[in-house]
Each structure stands twice: as C-alpha cells, then as structure tokens.
C-alpha cells in the first residue's frame, strides 16, 4: 500500500507572483493559492456597468480610477477584487507618469460581487483584510437577494437594499446610486 500525501506544499508570495496568470484568476494568502469562480451573467453585468458608471464620473475630474480584475499585492497577500478603486493621487505610476502594471498598495475601495458557488465568509475575510490594510470602503454585492453589505473602517457592516443609497468615498459623493437602481441593470 502506498501512502498519498494530501498536504499541498506552501509557496512564498514571490513564487506565486512568478507563476503564469490563470483564468479565472487565483489569489494568494499565507502560502495558499485559491482560484476565484468564473464570473457569470449577473456578476459580469454588474461589474462592467458599475465600473463604467463610476469611471464616467471620476476620470474627467481626476478624482479616482476604477480597475476591474486588477491584481493587488500588499500586506503579504495578492488579491484580485472584482472592482478596485484608487483615488487619483494613490494610483501607482511609472517614472513616465503612466499607470503602473504592478499595484503594490491597497485600494481605497473594493467591490466584490458574490457568485452563486462562492463562500460569502471567504469574501468577507478578504474585505476585512483590506480594511485592516487601509482600504476605506468595501461593498459585497449579493445578486441572490438584491442586497449590498457595506463595510467601512471602524464601523459595523450594514446591509443596504431597495431604495437605500449606497455610500461611496468622500471624493465621489456626486454618485447617488440606489441598490434598486444597480440591480435594475440586470433587467433587459
């Protein structure tokens, strides 16, 4: 009889970052790699519409920039939020003043869209990690019950639904988006 080892060897963050990118993306924490679920219709629709809506408001005024599926490596972890928002002065840049390829600082705001087969608690762990690293705001969007759990540093999470207006970063308070309006994007 041969014993089979089910223990996966842990790798370093540097070793992880040397691996080729995968689709769907993988994330790294504490020596372990976990693959994100492949986005489906509702997820994809909300992600692109929300990113576009925010960018149309903030880019012309150079307030912030929305990035979708951007690898963010900071605090010993490498994550790929569905949406990462960086305020203008915090966007990593090259010496030529272009947007950098590697983002090694926490986002100011992350938005995660829960997929049907995804563990809410795993996503919440990622959100809490980001908040502890300096992220100011996080949304966990749940298309199953048309709600958004809102996380802000040093506050209890809140659940927003229906006509509730979703909180945004202070520099973006022109954006007045209700939960109902956001989920209406799924109707065609």
Low-confidence stretches: none
CATH architecture level-2 label: Alpha-Beta Complex
Mean pLDDT rating: 92
Strand content: 15-25%
Q: Major sheet: order of its strands?
A: 3-6-7-8-9-10
Bulk shape: globular
Total number of helices: 4
What is the domain tally?
A: 1
Write out the CATH superfamily name.
tt1808, chain A
Structural class: alpha+beta
Main beta sheet, described?
A: 6 strands, mixed
Distance between the termini: 58 Å
Helix % is 10-25%
Q: What integer value in Å does the Rg equal?
A: 17 Å
CATH topology: tt1808, chain A
Account of the 3D structure:
With 188 residues, this protein is of the alpha+beta class. The protein has one domain (24-184): tt1808, chain A (Alpha-Beta Complex), CATH 3.90.1570.10. Helices cover 23% and strands 24% of the residues. It contains 4 helices and 10 strands, in the order αββαβββββαβββα. β7 (109-113), α3 and β8 (137-142) form a beta-alpha-beta unit. The protein starts with 12 loop residues before the first helix and ends with a helix.
Task: Describe what is shown at a glance.
This protein has 188 residues and is an alpha+beta fold.
Summarize the topology.
Elements: H1 13-18, E1 26-29, E2 32-35, H2 41-58, E3 64-68, E4 72-74, E5 77-79, E6 83-87, E7 109-113, H3 120-133, E8 137-142, E9 147-152, E10 158-161, H4 179-184
Parallel strand pairs: 7-8
Antiparallel strand pairs: 1-2, 1-5, 3-6, 4-5, 6-7, 8-9, 9-10
Observed structural traits:
single chain; 188 residues; alpha+beta; tt1808, chain A; 6-stranded mixed sheet; 4-stranded antiparallel sheet; 4 helices; 24% strand; globular
């Amino acid at each position: 009889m041969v014993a089979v080892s089910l223990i996966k060897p842990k790798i370093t963050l540097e070793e992880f970052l040397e691996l080729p990118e995968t689709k769907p993306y993988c994330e790294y924490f504490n020596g372990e790699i976990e693959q994100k679920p492949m986005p489906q219709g509702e997820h994809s629709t909300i992600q692109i519409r929300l990113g576009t809506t925010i960018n149309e408001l903030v880019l012309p005024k150079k307030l912030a920039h929305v990035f979708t599926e951007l690898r963010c490596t900071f605090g010993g972890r490498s994550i790929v939020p569905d949406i990462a928002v960086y305020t203008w002065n915090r966007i990593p840049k090259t010496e030529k003043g272009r947007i950098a390829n590697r983002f090694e600082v926490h986002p100011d705001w992350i938005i995660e869209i829960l997929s049907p087969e995804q563990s809410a608690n795993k996503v919440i762990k990622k959100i809490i990690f980001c908040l502890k690293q300096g992220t100011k705001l996080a949304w966990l969007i749940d298309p199953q019950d048309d709600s958004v759990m809102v996380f802000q540093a040093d506050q209890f999470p809140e659940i927003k639904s229906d006509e509730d207006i979703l909180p945004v970063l202070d520099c973006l308070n022109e954006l007045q988006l209700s939960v109902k309006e956001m989920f209406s994007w799924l109707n065609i």
